[in-house]
Amino acid sequence: MRDGVGMTRETAIGLFLVAVLLAFPLVASAMGEPFYITLATRMAVLALAAVGLNVALGLGGLVSFGHAAFFGIGGYVAGILASHAFNQEPIFSTPFAFMGSDRMPVVWLFAMLVSALVALPIGAISLRTSGVYFIMITLAFAQMIYYFAMSWPAYGGEDGLSILSRNTFPGLNTANPLSLFAVCYGLLLVALLVFAVLRDSRFGAALLASRQNATRLAAVGIAPFPVRLAAFVISAAITGLAGALYADLNRFVSPSMLSWQMSGELIVLVILGGTGRLFGPVAGAMLFVMIEFVLGGITERWQFFLGLILLGVVLFARGGLVGVLAGKVRHG
Amino acid sequence: MAEPVLSIRDLRKTFGALKATDGVSLDLRPGEIHALIGPNGAGKSTLIHQIAGSLRPDSGSIRFLGQDVGELGVAARARMGLGRSFQISSLALEFSALRNVMLAVQSRQASSFRFLKGVMRDRSLTEPAMAALERTGLAPRAHVPAAELSHGERRQLEIAIALALGPKTFLLDEPMAGMGPEGSRALTAFLDGLRQEAPILLVEHDMDAVFALADRISVLVYGRIIASGTVDEIRSHPDVRRAYLGETA
């Protein structure tokens, strides 16, 4: 089970999931079913958002009920930059004219940067509290941003903002569903790698310890607060990146991306897959989107059944899907 | 006489009407084991919390290595070299014994904001941690999660973590608590040698250990130090006999 002793069962299961997620749209494409490619892209993007939340929630034990804020901010950054680039209107003209951008790498950079900058003060205030208060204060901040977006007419207010032409990626035609999937899937893999490296680093050790026993961490001379704050900001940046992709996938961004239901959905993804597990978000997102699609096709009340499944996981399978398949987590 | 490493002057802390710490002054000198004894509820834990930084005194001063540490938090004092063990084991339970100790090594190297290199492949972390485990006899259990260690092993792990900090002072809160006679004897012998590395402020209920180890003993009753002196002075002190040791001592 330990580092360096071949491949662990968890890694094998994770690689299998990632392979299935890749095979799904390829098969769909070969069979001429583009809808399923979009479904797989949705899985990849939601998984990426959940990887972000998993840094704060899984590694740090920080139950953020406001991560939709960062998801939505990423989405609005994509939408706003694209609309200005499309209309050839500068976002600001002093000290220089910034015309927005329709290039994905630029959009991603801004989405991550803005999400991180917003997360910094939210984290700095929220992390003074813990437990239920932390949950409530992160929710409150997210709601503030939600209502701000609702009442800001410049970018669509409650009607949302359409992205008329999907942002571009050099060398790819992003209007092609399979190309867009490849972009999202590639970023998901990078995020998984970042998560794994982060978790195994000194920073990760301090973060994992802060969740298990903050008193012990302080007693060896590592103050928990800066560690948690850094984790919160990194977490927000990854979720913000996912938000930008989500907006491009739907060619539309609206305040619903910022809603508390979205925050809850992200938590559900992480818990379904396995809190703190590397491939948990992938498992969670695949399961969630499948349930939504299969049960959603049978009944409008599919969320009732999602609730039942979640109840089962919380009561009988604390480690989520990955926990059920790979057993308990072991840290070296 | 050598400059004290830790020097506490007129420390006071009240909780409502209760004077938990009532004008406590005490010193810890280089090379000594200073035992702090007293009946339950005497305020030993409150005092330890104030020294460690997890509780703010109402008044009085705490100087450590010649510096007033009153404004510093727990982590800052630990980084200065205050190596603490807890009365009730306080560990990262999912982590192996080795990884618990590695946290202390990592802190000593002031390096918790490194994001790339994996800790288990980092010999500058694993080797000093392993050395600390070996000194406390816990090396064979290095890869066992702390949650699966026995009570006595957890006490040993607490000591190993404090060792790995390379502290200037040990603050040991009942290190013998719940250990069998065998374990207590082994730990007593170990602490005996440890005072050469750094002085020890030892809170302990095990009187055999205290009398065997202490260079000086201070007796805390109702938040006040009623006596302070060598083992023989404390043994024969009439107030101490009455307040704490009882007839059998």
Automatic annotation (TrEMBL), chain A:
Q: Where in the cell is it found?
A: Cell membrane
- Protein name, as recorded: Amino acid/amide ABC transporter membrane protein 2 (HAAT family)
| Primary residence | membrane
Q: List the taxonomic lineage.
A: Bacteria, Pseudomonadati, Pseudomonadota, Alphaproteobacteria, Hyphomicrobiales
Organism domain of life:
Bacteria
The membrane-topology field of this record reads: Multi-pass membrane protein
Print the keywords alphabetically: Cell membrane, Membrane, Transmembrane, Transmembrane helix
Which InterPro entries would you find in this protein's record? ABC_transp_permease (IPR001851), LivM-like (IPR043428)
Molecular function GO terms recorded: branched-chain amino acid transmembrane transporter activity
- What are the TM regions of this chain, as residue ranges? 12-31, 43-63, 68-86, 106-125, 132-155, 175-198, 219-246, 266-290, 302-326
Keyword Transit peptide included in the entry's annotation: no
Question: Got a GO cellular component term for this one?
Answer: plasma membrane
UniProtKB/TrEMBL annotation, chain B:
**SUPFAM superfamilies membership:** P-loop containing nucleoside triphosphate hydrolases (SSF52540)
Alphabetized InterPro entries for the sequence: AAA+_ATPase, ABC_AA/LPS_Transport, ABC_transporter-like_ATP-bd, BCA_ABC_TP_C, P-loop_NTPase
Q: Which residues form the ABC transporter domain?
A: 6-247
GO cellular component, alphabetical, reads: plasma membrane
**Which CDD domains does the UniProt entry name for this protein?**
ABC_Mj1267_LivG_branched (cd03219)
The protein's GO terms of the molecular function aspect are: ATP binding; ATP hydrolysis activity
Q: Which Gene3D superfamilies match?
A: P-loop containing nucleotide triphosphate hydrolases (3.40.50.300)
> Which protein, by its recorded name, is this?
Amino acid/amide ABC transporter ATP-binding protein 1 (HAAT family)
Please report the organism this UniProt entry assigns to the protein: Pseudaminobacter salicylatoxidans
